[in-house]
Amino acid sequence: MTVKVLLADDQALVRAGFRSLLARSRDVAVVGEAATGDEAVRLAARAHPDVVLMDIRMPGMDGITATRHIVADPGCRVIILTTFDTDEHVFDALRAGASGFLTKEVEPSELRRAVAAVAAGEALLSPGVTRRVVEQFAHRQGPAPVARQRLTVLTSRELEVVRLVALGLSNDEIAERLTISPFTAKTHITRAIAKVAVRDRVQLVILAYESGLVRPGG
């Protein structure tokens, strides 16, 4: 199955570089290039890509706003491209619905793995790095009552699993910690995502921090 990718970056050389890297994979097809956020939204609606590689800073509509529009289509996922992985805009993009992020210095093999993973529904590209970004910015306003209320629909075991997801543990690590099977761990995560009505693991991590279930340094 071929993964359809849309490239969105205002620099033509950057787009050409990513197109060249992705061309080495027989399972990936670049279906369009956009130089602005507005163009990315229009092309995504027309080409229906599986994954959009989205720059944050573009003229006109920025990558964060474009991401919010594009992920309204549940079949399309966004990977943010950034120069600095500690940029607060990265966190804003994750909140807008991006499934993860990569720096523009990403290794070719990592890029191809990331595209394949996100297309398959795996949201957290790098648990440790993503957690650091979320931890750095999610708690700035303090625990939000609305976020806490959303977690009340979860069972005690589901809350425990969500906390471990927010701490950056993989399904296998969660299974080992709780003495359950990886399949059971994944089932708990899937149910939690459905119950609190978030898009994926990234949004679940953000909710865990914003609710106070997990605190910075926890």
Outline:
With 218 residues, this protein is an alpha/beta fold. It is 53% helix and 13% strand. A five-stranded parallel β-sheet has the order 2-1-3-4-5, with helices on both faces.
Q: Record the strand order, biggest sheet.
A: 2-1-3-4-5
- Unreliable residue stretches: none
| Multimeric status of the protein | single chain
Number of helices: 11
State Rg. 17 Å
| Strand composition percent | 5-15%
Question: Any idea what the shape is?
Answer: globular
Q: Cα distance, first to last residue?
A: 40 Å
What key attributes describe this structure?
single chain; 218 residues; alpha/beta; five-stranded parallel β-sheet; 5 strands; 53% helix; globular
Could you outline the blueprint of secondary structure elements for this entry?
Layout (H helix, E strand, L loop, with lengths): L2 E6 L3 H12 L4 E7 L2 H11 L3 E5 L7 H8 L6 E6 L5 H9 L3 E4 L4 H12 L7 H12 L6 H6 L5 H11 L4 H8 L3 H15 L4 H11 L7
Parallel strand pairs: 1-2, 1-3, 3-4, 4-5
Account of the protein in words:
The chain has 218 residues and is of the alpha/beta class. The protein is 53% helix and 13% strand. The protein has helices at 12-23, 37-47, 63-70, 88-96, 108-119, 127-138, 145-150, 156-166, 171-178, 182-196, 201-211, and strands at residues 3-8, 28-34, 51-55, 77-82, 100-103. Helix 3 runs parallel beside helix 4 (88-96), helix 8 (156-166) packs across helix 10 (182-196) and helix 9 crosses helix 10 (182-196). The N and C termini lie far apart (40 Å). 40% of the residues are buried. The mean pLDDT is 86.
